[in-house]
Design brief:
The structure is a single chain. The protein has helices spanning 3-6, 10-59, 64-84, 91-104, 135-146, 195-199; strands spanning 86-87, 108-113, 117-118, 122-133, 152-161, 181-192. It is an alpha+beta fold. Strands 1, 2, 3, 4, 5 and 6 form a six-stranded mixed β-sheet that branches. α2 packs antiparallel against α3 (64-84). InterPro entries: PilO, Transl_elong_EF1B/ribsomal_bS6. Keywords: Membrane, Transmembrane, Transmembrane helix. It comes from Candidatus Falkowbacteria bacterium RIFOXYD2_FULL_34_120. This is Pilus assembly protein PilO.
């Protein structure tokens, strides 16, 4: 058998990698990001509805027993709310978590948080992440990001083939022989504003 018929040329390998990455990105978007977006909208609507009902009860001077029952209903939903949103006072903790995920998956990472956009009860902050590493470690990194309690809406993943020769940035991970992908991720993160800020 002719060896040339068995080996794929370099261009075919690159096309194959791009097709695989594109398929994985589509799977992430349709099976993780879109269902999560619908879930957070549902939770937000439930919380707002219960908050309105609670405020009506206060305005109508309901007795303490009824108010306590309402609080018991709202508290579990507020816990979900707090898990999905990042507290504004926990920016350093959030960045430290991302750095830990990158180190765990042997990825070289740079993080940039843009100024946030204020909404009525929360803030949307654009997160830019630049990564370098292997394809397998990228997949593990994305899986770990998706496993976080925080809601991170990834809407752009740009993957380019980096240099095939080893550079100094990979010296920290000597076993990463195939660490030759450069990845740029753009995502929206959702931050819970302090109560004093939302009521001013």
């Amino acid at each position: 058998m002719n060896l040339q018929t068995i080996k794929m040329n370099t261009k075919q390998k690159i096309i194959a990698i791009i097709l695989i990455v594109s398929l994985i990105c589509l799977v992430i978007v349709y099976f993780i990001i879109i269902p999560t977006t619908e879930n957070i909208k549902k939770i937000k609507n439930e919380i707002l509805t219960q908050k309105i009902n609670f405020e009506k009860n206060l305005d109508q001077n309901k007795n303490i027993t009824q108010i306590t029952e309402q609080l018991k209903i709202i508290e579990p939903e507020l816990k979900k709310f707090n898990n999905i949103f990042i507290n504004q006072s926990q920016e350093l903790e959030f960045i430290t978590i991302l750095e830990g995920i990158a180190n765990q998956n042997k990825m070289v990472q740079k993080i940039n948080l843009a100024p946030g956009q204020n909404k009525k009860n929360y803030q949307i902050t654009k997160l830019n992440i630049s990564l370098s590493g292997s394809f397998l470690n990228l997949i593990n990194y994305l899986s770990d990001i998706e496993a976080l309690d925080y809601y991170i809406n990834i809407y752009s993943i740009d993957i380019n083939k980096g240099q095939s020769t080893r550079t100094t940035e990979y010296a920290e991970y000597p076993d990463q022989k195939d660490a030759n992908l450069n990845i740029k991720i753009i995502a929206d993160t959702y931050w819970q504003q302090n109560y004093e800020q939302t009521t001013n």
